[in-house]
Amino acid sequence: MDMATVIGSLAGALTTIAFIPQVIRTWKTRSARDISLVTYLLFSCGVLLWLIYGILLQAMPVILANGVTLLLSASILALKIRDMLLQQQRLRAADQRTL
Q: Ramachandran region of residue 64, left (φ > 0), alpha (ψ -120 to 50) or beta?
């Protein structure tokens, strides 16, 4: 394995692993209130483009790192959207009780 592949693999592993604590925390607390929807939407789109780029270049470190990162960021994004929908339902229910 050449040095560029080693560095690319290490960089991909570290940046991917960095998302695991956020996924675990969001899952355990069942709250994504403090997570920015716009940030995760933009980030997930960027990671998807990196994944496509890696596929086009057939660069396995880029493909693996961005494939896993996309799954992790998409899971946080899904939890954020779920949290927003639940919050809207709670607000509607509260509004109906005050009528």
A: alpha
pTM here?
0.80
What whole-number distance in Å separates Cα of residue 24 and Cα of residue 94? 30
Residue 45 resides in a domain:
yes
Which long-range contacts link 26-29 to residues 24+ away (Cβ below 8 Å)? 26/76, 26/79, 26/80, 27/75, 27/79
Query: Residue 69 has what pLDDT?
Result: 94
18-29: pLDDT as tens digits: 889 988 998 898
Q: Which residue has the tokens 């994004």?
A: 77
Domain extent, residue 86, equals 35-92
The CATH code of the domain that includes 71 is 1.20.1280.290
82, part of any domain: yes
